[in-house]
Write a structure and sequence with these properties.
- Helices cover 0% and strands 30% of the residues.
- The strands form 3 sheets. It has a 6-stranded antiparallel beta sheet with strand order 4-3-13-12-9-10, with no helix packed on it. A 5-stranded mixed beta sheet has the order 6-5-7-8-11, with no helix packed on it. A two-stranded antiparallel ribbon has the order 1-2.
- The chain is elongated and about 55 Å long.
Amino acid sequence: MKTCPYCAHSNREGVLFCEECGQVLYTEQGAQTSTKRLPTGTGGLNAKSGWGTARFSPKSTIVLQIRDNPSPIEIEPQQETIIGRYDGSNSTTPTIDLTPYGAYEHGVSRIHAAIRRGEDTLMLVDLGSVNGTHLNGQRLIPNQPRVLRDGDEIRIGKLVCHIYFKTDGK
């Protein structure tokens, strides 16, 4: 029996769509395409205390340090940098692809959030994701930007990371 992650209906083995709600259970490759819905709550994840600088200079880059992963992601943010996970059934590829970090298992949507560049700041925006985006423990209201600071904790679904601002001298 295969249980639907959306309606919890027990389906016959081998079905591709939930017999109750019609949700896709597997793609041709066997990978689920929809975002896995996770239980709400922090699951023991605590917000950090303290504030870093909100100033982001034009020559800076961002470093995204994923919890429990030794290799950070360093990127020069565009006007809008999309965070999400790649899915072969969708033509959209996020700028920051969290698939190698267990994105599906952590409830990351394909197009989950965005980092938007201002004149001297960065803003984090949830793009209507299923499992939400949290900034320092506070859930973001979809499509309402919040200022990012150096060292902030971002939770994308249940995937926890910290963002750092890196300048040439840093």
